Amino acid sequence: MSDSDRYLAQEIIPFEDAWVTGSSPSHIAFNLAPLREIFRRCEDEGLVFGFVHNHPAGPAEFSDVDEKNEYTLIQALSNRNGPDITFVAMLWAEEKWVARTRSAKAPRSSESVRHTLVLGKQISLYGYKESSDTHCEVQARQTAAFGQPFVDILQSLRVGVVGNGGTGSPFATLGARAGIGELVLIDKDQLDASNLNRVRGLVRADIEQAKSTTLKAFIENIGLSIKVAAVVSEVDTDPIAVDALASCDVIIGCTDDFSGRELLNVALYVYAQPLIDIGLGGRVDEGKDGYPYLRYHYGRISTILPEAGQCLFCQGVIKEVWIRAQHARRDNPAITAEELKGRYLEDGATDAPGVGPFTSATADYALATLFDLIKPFRRFPPEVRRDMFFVDFVKMGIHSHETAKDTECPYCGTHKFLLLKESSRLNRPSLGKRYEFS
Length: 438
Known about the structure:
It is a single chain. The chain has helices at residues 36-45, 64-81, 133-138, 140-146, 148-156, 168-178, 211-222, 239-246, 258-270, 320-331, 337-342, 356-374, and strands at 20-24, 27-30, 49-54, 86-93, 96-103, 111-112, 116-119, 123-126, 158-162, 182-186, 227-231, 250-253, 275-286, 292-304, 388-392, 397-399. By secondary structure, it is of the alpha/beta class. Strands 11-10-9-12-13-14-15-16 form an eight-stranded mixed sheet, sandwiched between helices. α6 links the parallel β9 (158-162) and β10 (182-186). The longest helix has 19 residues, at 356-374. The protein is globular. 36% of the residues are buried.
């Protein structure tokens, strides 16, 4: 579906003066011949051709001259690359982006994009729609706190929530009420009775039902203007889940699955997505009275953007040995800790009892982190990192810890995976070629 298409800027090729045959403040004419080599690359590498220009004197909208130039370009493209190609046009004017697409099958018509998203250390969104009156009424208090543009940006976003249990369900339900426009819920698990102490939107009648589909039904029943999709599968093994993930603007990691987290760590660079990953950990000891007590317990919020923040490996959230141990458990669920140790594997598990106030509070911090990416409001003390901090539920504090920065890390160091050109999904043959989410 075109509504799920995302176009990523893989490479910028400056338009050379020698290609221009005529120009004025209101028009540009150019020679197509130098562009044919770029057309060929698009066909060979499976890329989409885009044409970016500006209007120095305005207006901040496409002109009749733009219409003619785009028609000329898409005709030349389709003659060279076939009738199934898509063309992207982008305009920078009055300090904002405007964008639209065309199809070779209907070259005279264009389709405006939902928005243009620019990532740095925060999210900048252009071209989003203004809210409806109904949406404005529901979000009146957030508008008072952050302004109408903030509310409209949140309404325009598609957010993927991977893991729909103790942290994922409170994030999704509160995110829906906060005004996120679209949610993609990904979780393979069914609801267990032991989950009922902390999940949101699920009830006893939902036991043995898929968490993602029952959570979807609950959110839709709230009655807000939000679209919800549910994918019942493992994100690291199912091509459909990866396609759903690729269609999102922002990803929220709420899984305790190391393989799933590793895939999210790859995807944030390949698909240029902010990742907010949530985790809980701690230690439970036995007190003198013979009952357990929390020696320490914390929620973790990791915020990683393609060019900002340390990756999950460098933060110590995931390790290769933990991922291999998980794969060993998948292959043989009966494998013992001693057998894992004999294979030099460890599972990386920590004491993290699923207690509702801690899981929900951590999810709330994650949603506030998304707010801060859209409109920065936090004032971090020097000792607290933006890319990783812990909420200590026992000592009642917020802190970060230092990690060894690996300049050779293929993710956040050398950016080997940044906008990786895929021969298969995430270049993993087991996930199949390309993606198409509907």
